[in-house]
Automatic annotation (TrEMBL):
Residues 454-518 form a coiled coil. It holds the Pfam family DUF1631. Keywords: Coiled coil. It comes from the Bacteria. InterPro entries: DUF1631. It comes from Marinobacter salarius. This is DUF1631 domain-containing protein.
């Protein structure tokens, strides 16, 4: 495929989406869906509202197209396409919305409601109020099953949606869902005001707690490092834990670790350890005297500066007793400086604590992060990085604390992929626009294919018509030729029959003439003939042969009175006998028999 055909199509605007949905619902055809064989009248299609209501009430997660395929009912093209479009929109929403899978799955069950309404209203099923509410679900991007009370509250609201949609199915009107969306928006505004106060209060509380943890952990790290593996007099250990440890925490709380008080307190802690541990101080007795003279005043000075009041003299009595014993060269009884076991935990990293670069932190602040996969995933909002402890403060986005994570562990989890940024969420309106845009492309392609198929069908029909016409013309020509041949054969047969009949008649005529001639030649003088009547007023006349003139072949007949009535030439009389106008008496029976035989043969020849 050429690169130019692979360019991403521009997504339709909201107005264009509204216009295109109707075309998609009526025009698109999807393979393997149970489309009717022909056009189904509106009143002939099955009512699917009870079926969809049942699926919604049971909160089923299967596609609408699978549901309508599972029953043997008659569906219209618009119903099938409405089911497919609703499934397509919600399937894309499930994959691209970015919401927690459990939450997205509950919203995707609206496919049953959308399929029902799109069949009735087309684009009206996705009015601005419903789409705006679905878009506002981005505010719930941080929801997960472990969100606690706020998570359960959201599920309770979605249970109200279940009731509202069921009410729409029962009443046939979308009013309950519209009211639910409006109420949701009002509640969201109130929650946002409350959440803002909770977030501010949480930040102040956690910053104070972080400052407290920093002072505690830094003091522990300083004391732990100083006392690690040391054996000291009990008085020194008691002073450090009863007084100096609290002073160090106070310094860190008030000033941090950059001021003079911190530096002096750390140094005096080292001196206390150095004085109390003979293994350290016995090597330099001169310095021991110097430190012993100054340490009490310096401890009091630092204490007074930090707390604003002097240290009780009783607090230093133990230290002073140890100093006296050490200056005398005596070794006091030693105990382990740190408590046995893990009763005093400390982390040396707090002494080298440094905040990460702001450029590294800034892009991550205010972002959502995901830990885990599928339904077990947990979502956390990086609300703030506590400056005193460099801990990421996790919330649910609504001012509820979900936990803390030190920055080093945060960076490690992010690098390893255990913790990952939540990809940008896709609003429902964008899902809708992209889906209808994609289906519009399919519709255009199918329309072109149908037009091309129609053109090809018309071309094939025209070709078939021409071929049929040519075949019909050829058949007619062949039939005409066959009919002409049959006519020719019939005419030839008829001509032969007529010729045969004429020949037979000629033969019979000759026979009659021969027979008639024999009769005429055989008439004797005195023989009688009868001349048949030639009109209504004339009767037959009997005549007797009176004279035969051989030279002229003339016969003279007279009536019974002897008068000269008629004269016939022989040939003429023969003709009259053949034609039946004259009968020869005496031999007329034989001649009639001959004529009957001749006539019979003529009839047989005709048949």
């Amino acid at each position: 495929m050429q690169q130019s055909t692979q360019k991403k199509r521009k997504v339709l605007s909201r107005k264009q989406v509204v216009k295109r949905i109707g075309d998609v619902l009526s025009g698109i055809r999807v393979p393997d869906l149970p489309y009717p064989a022909g056009k189904v009248a509106a009143d002939a299609a099955s009512d699917w509202r009870p079926l969809l209501l049942s699926c919604w009430t049971e909160q089923r997660d299967e596609p609408v197209t699978r549901v309508i395929r599972s029953v043997s009912l008659t569906w219209s093209v618009r119903q099938i396409n409405s089911a497919y479009v609703a499934d397509r929109i919600m399937d894309v929403f499930l994959k691209t919305s970015g919401l927690h899978p459990e939450l997205a799955l509950r919203i995707a069950r609206l496919r049953f409601f959308l399929a029902w309404r799109m069949n009735l209203e087309g684009a009206g099923a996705l009015n601005d109020t419903i789409v705006h509410w679905l878009d506002s679900l981005q505010d719930c991007r941080g929801w997960s099953g472990s969100s606690g009370r706020s998570g359960r509250a959201l599920l309770d609201q979605l249970d109200s949606l279940t009731i509202a949609v069921s009410g729409c199915f029962d009443s046939g009107d979308v009013g309950p869902v519209i009211e639910f969306c409006r109420q949701w928006e009002e509640d969201a505004g109130k929650r946002e005001q409350q959440n803002e106060r909770l977030r501010q209060r949480l930040l102040e509380t956690e910053q104070g707690a972080a400052r407290q943890r920093k002072s505690e952990q830094t003091a522990r790290a300083l004391v732990g490092r100083a006392l690690q593996n040391r054996q000291l007099p009990q008085a020194v250990v008691r002073f450090i834990f009863d007084h100096w440890f609290a002073l160090i925490k106070q310094i860190v709380w008030q000033e941090g670790t950059e001021g003079d008080n911190w530096r002096h307190a750390s140094k005096l802690l080292e001196w206390l350890v150095w004085i109390g541990d003979p293994a350290l101080s016995d090597k330099d007795r001169n310095r021991l005297y110097t430190v012993g003279e100054q340490i009490g005043d310096r401890i009091s000075d630092v204490w007074n500066r930090v707390n604003g009041k002097p240290l009780d003299d009783s607090a230093l009595q133990g230290i002073q007793s140890v100093m006296v014993d050490r200056l005398r060269g005596e070794t006091p009884e030693l105990v382990s400086a740190l408590p046995e076991g893990d009763r005093f935990s400390w982390d040396p990293s707090w002494l080298s604590f440094s905040a990460p670069p702001e450029a590294e932190v800034e892009p991550l602040l205010g972002k959502w992060f995901v830990e885990g996969e599928g339904a077990a995933e947990r979502r956390r909002y990086f609300f703030a990085l506590l400056p005193d402890t460099c801990e990421a403060l996790w919330t649910n986005g609504a001012g509820v604390k979900l936990g803390l994570m030190p920055w080093p562990r945060f960076s490690t989890a992010l690098d390893s992929g255990t913790l990952r940024l939540l990809p940008p969420l896709t609003p429902f309106g964008q899902v809708l626009a992209e889906t209808i845009t994609s289906l519009s492309v399919v519709l255009e392609r199918q329309t072109l294919q149908r037009e091309e198929a129609a053109r090809e069908a018309r071309a094939r029909a025209e070709t078939l018509r021409r071929e049929k016409a040519e075949a019909e013309q050829l058949r007619q020509q062949e039939e005409a030729a066959r009919q002409a041949e049959l006519a020719r054969q019939k005419k030839a047969a008829e001509d032969r029959r007529i010729a045969d009949e004429e020949a037979e008649q000629q033969r019979l005529l000759q026979e009659r003439e021969t027979a008639a001639r024999e009769l005429v030649e055989g008439i004797k003088l005195g023989g009688w003939i009868v001349e048949e009547s030639s009109g209504e007023d004339k009767d037959a006349v009997r005549l007797k042969l009176a004279v035969r003139i051989n030279a002229s072949r003339k016969l003279v007949f007279v009536d019974r009175l002897g008068l000269n009535r008629r004269e016939f030439l022989v040939d003429e009389l023969v003709d009259h006998v053949v034609m039946g106008r004259v009968r020869v008496l005496g031999s007329s029976a034989e001649f009639d028999d001959a004529l009957s035989r001749v006539v019979g043969r003529i009839r047989v020849g005709r048949n």
